[in-house]
Amino acid sequence: MFTGIVTAIGTIRRLTPIGAGQDMRVAIGTPPGWLQGVALGASICCSGCCLTVVAQEGDLFEVEISAESLSRTTLGGWREGMRINLERSLRMGDEMGGHVVSGHVDGVAEVLSVTPENGSHRWRFRLPPGLARFVAEKGSITVDGVSLTVNEVEGESFGVNLIPHTTEATALGTLAPGARVNIEIDMLARYVARLRQFEGQSGA
């Protein structure tokens, strides 16, 4: 589990096709010392996607990504030199600074606009079909692994405000309109929707 509080920005160092070219092995560079204590098999949230460490050397770790994950997330568009958001898995006693994040991507959204608004910027995203019902004003959402508060929802789009610290401390600041981002809906919203569905079936 994760919290959506990015603790480092990693850099894609190497992409190697595996599994007859359908899967991918990726080497990711990290800031000095960030990997201290990370063991093989550990989970790291990489721009919103929970991946398993299969190799590690110095300040670099490697992960393997299946064709399924490549097709359902933005990971299939990774290129060498790209910067990505990183968060190590939550440990007992760690501060819950954001909200509960599983690292399981629900869909890919598109950046619609970035507009200055006082001391911050208003970002608007277009959700893939079917996800808008899980997004609520003042609720939580995870965008490329970053826990954010929803300001408004209009149809299939939603908006958030990003302060300068967020764009500087994460890779979100490298994005522009037209970019694609990984979205994970709030886990609470998921279970509420499932409960309502079950109640509707029981009352039929």
TrEMBL record:
Using the record for this protein, list the coiled-coil segments as residue ranges, or answer none. Answer: none
Q: Which residues form the Lumazine-binding domain?
A: 1-99, 100-196
Q: What name appears for this protein in its UniProt entry?
A: Riboflavin synthase
Lumazine-binding repeats mapped onto the chain: 1-99, 100-196
Query: What EC number(s) does its UniProt record assign?
Result: 2.5.1.9
InterPro entries documented for this protein: ATP_synth_asu-like_sf, Lumazine-bd, Lumazine-bd_dom, Riboflavin_synthase-like_b-brl
Q: What pathway is it annotated to?
A: Cofactor biosynthesis; riboflavin biosynthesis; riboflavin from 2-hydroxy-3-oxobutyl phosphate and 5-amino-6-(D-ribitylamino)uracil: step 2/2
| Reactions catalysed | 2 6,7-dimethyl-8-(1-D-ribityl)lumazine + H(+) = 5-amino-6-(D-ribitylamino)uracil + riboflavin
Q: Which organism is it from?
A: Pararoseomonas baculiformis
Q: What class of enzyme is it?
A: transferase
Q: Which NCBIfam families match?
A: PRK09289.1, PRK13020.1, ribE
Q: Name one GO molecular function term.
A: riboflavin synthase activity
Q: Which UniProt keywords apply?
A: Repeat, Riboflavin biosynthesis, Transferase
| Biological function | Catalyzes the dismutation of two molecules of 6,7-dimethyl-8-ribityllumazine, resulting in the formation of riboflavin and 5-amino-6-(D-ribitylamino)uracil.
